[in-house]
TrEMBL record:
<feature type="transmembrane region" description="Helical">
    <location>
        <begin position="573"/>
        <end position="594"/>
    </location>
</feature>
<dbReference type="GO" id="GO:0007035">
    <property type="term" value="P:vacuolar acidification"/>
</dbReference>
<protein>
    <submittedName>
        <fullName>V-type ATP synthase subunit I</fullName>
    </submittedName>
</protein>
<keyword id="KW-0472">Membrane</keyword>
<feature type="transmembrane region" description="Helical">
    <location>
        <begin position="495"/>
        <end position="514"/>
    </location>
</feature>
<feature type="transmembrane region" description="Helical">
    <location>
        <begin position="372"/>
        <end position="397"/>
    </location>
</feature>
<keyword id="KW-0812">Transmembrane</keyword>
<feature type="transmembrane region" description="Helical">
    <location>
        <begin position="417"/>
        <end position="440"/>
    </location>
</feature>
<dbReference type="GO" id="GO:0033179">
    <property type="term" value="C:proton-transporting V-type ATPase, V0 domain"/>
</dbReference>
<keyword id="KW-0813">Transport</keyword>
<keyword id="KW-1133">Transmembrane helix</keyword>
<keyword id="KW-0406">Ion transport</keyword>
<feature type="transmembrane region" description="Helical">
    <location>
        <begin position="520"/>
        <end position="541"/>
    </location>
</feature>
<dbReference type="GO" id="GO:0051117">
    <property type="term" value="F:ATPase binding"/>
</dbReference>
<feature type="transmembrane region" description="Helical">
    <location>
        <begin position="600"/>
        <end position="624"/>
    </location>
</feature>
<dbReference type="GO" id="GO:0016471">
    <property type="term" value="C:vacuolar proton-transporting V-type ATPase complex"/>
</dbReference>
<dbReference type="GO" id="GO:0046961">
    <property type="term" value="F:proton-transporting ATPase activity, rotational mechanism"/>
</dbReference>
Amino acid sequence: MAVDKMKKLTIVADNEKEETVFQILQGLQAVEIQKVSEEVLTRLGGEETFQPETVSKLNVKNYESILGKIQESLLIIERYAALSHQKSQLRRSVYTLADLEEQYDPVAVEGYVETILSLKEKLDMIGEERERLSVEENLLARWKNLTVLPKDYEDMTYTELILGSLNLTNQADFLSEIEKLERVHCEEIYLSPHHGYYALLVLKNEKNLVQQIISNYSFQRYFYPYEVLPEQAYQETKEKVKQLIAEEKAVKKEIGHCYEWKKSLYLAEEVVRAKIQREVTKKGLARSQDFFVLQGWIPESEEEDLSKELNRRFPDNDVYLLFEEPTAQEIQQVVPTKLKNHPVVEPFEMLTEMYSLPRYDEIDPTPIMMPFYLTFFGMMAADIGYGLLLFLATTLVRKFVVLPKGRNRFMKLFQILSLPIMAWGFIYGSFFGVEIYQYIGTGGLPLPLLSTTTDVNQILILSVVFGFIQIMTGLLVNGIQLIKRKQYLSSVSESFAWQGLLVGIIVLASGMLFLDNQGFVIIGSAVAILSALSIVVVPIIQSKSKLKGLAKGMYGLYGITGYIGDLVSYTRLMALGISGGSIAAAFNMIVGFMPPVAKFSIGIVLLIVLHGLNIFLSLLSAYVHGARLQYVEFFGKFYTGGGRAFNPLKTEEKYINIEKKK
């Protein structure tokens, strides 16, 4: 498995078939639309034959308006559904695009939206009126002790009633000045913590004196607007507020009844989003008065499905369809990358994507990387219990919950990774930090195969051996790629010579330190020296300037220090595996020291919390450090990346999953 082979697609059809063709392409989710090339336009009559794309822009604005109303309606329903005790999450399901659009009834959806928005508008009006009346009610509460109607004093010849309030800091001085005016009657109506409310009955010939006083003490006049006494106006306003509260509850309940439309609105949102995506993509096509032309990229494996679907929808073969091989220039510049791997390998593609997709003409590192990542992940998170718990959790979620595709792929990745966790847990004999073989026996077998307490050096050596194997694999892949490109000398200096140098050093060290065998020493030395010479000599042969070639070769040979650092980096496999197991054992020991009553009460809760934390940290560490080993130590030996991701015309799948076949 590797990078999926792409074909250049060209479709020509009548304008009336445009929407159906785009719907088919979107449902297939396997065609990336690109701008029609000038070469094709010239062949079909020149650029002047085709019209600027304006219809799509108008359609997009129309659909975006509909989408905004649907989203607003859903927010309103979600907000008030709890009042009817109906609030629940929409269960994700699977549709084909054709089935989804078949269920979409624009007239019904428009009716739902108008009803909900009109109810919300009514609710807003009630809220504004309530707020206004609440202000009036609070104000009238301060004047309800006024027992005269201010309007009765408006037409009097000699007297005038002045109402108002002032800050209590000015109260004493104000009252003192008013008392000096013998023919002014002042009555306190209400006292708040900060203000006093007063009614002044004054003679009109002394009004100017009173005006001067109230101006000096910041007396705020109040002009009473009602035709009835304040007490009656207060009660009437209070009653209106009660009526509005009842109306508001009734409207909210009516909105709550709209919850039954929620699923239809969610599906309508998906359809409208799909239509917007289609219209946006149409800017890449060319349209004349009679026909349209579109071009794009399609995986070779999808050609047959597209042809069959177009023939089924257009049996008269009046849609022109052309598949072409990409040119060498297109391969280098514009052909997108789509990975295609076995279903077991496919979840690991996300690790490659996080680093960088391969170029279209480059090897896909995912299948090569997968067995190493599995091994390393299991080694760093090794525990039978942790792996079993992870396997059960991911399996149950994938079995009973329809997840978004990206999340489902992530869940599948950890479902697969749970297996090496359990496998290495058997090797280390660890079950939630407990040395399991002490309790279940070994059946005469030498178990555990490795102990994290007594076999630390062996685990360390094994970690470095795994690293050595991965580095050698990376160099081998690099050599094969260079040979395919007919760069034979580069394959020697950049790949095979390094393999020989590393193997030679290993053989030499084994002969001197472990085997005490002179033959191993001689063979290892010869292979290492020959390989080192190759690393230095090949750049000299390739370079026009022999001095520069020598410098390049010597600098390349200095890279041996980088390989030493790479091998040391793999010791993290041992460190993380042992630390996770040790932490789990320490948690068990802490609970084990508790008294019996505490051990079987709070101790159980404590174990769940602590092991949950250790599982999270172990999985996170294994995920991050496992990826780091692939990206730095492995990919650096043969992989460049830099490919452009294949971006087919599809739907957003916000609430549902769209599949070609349900």
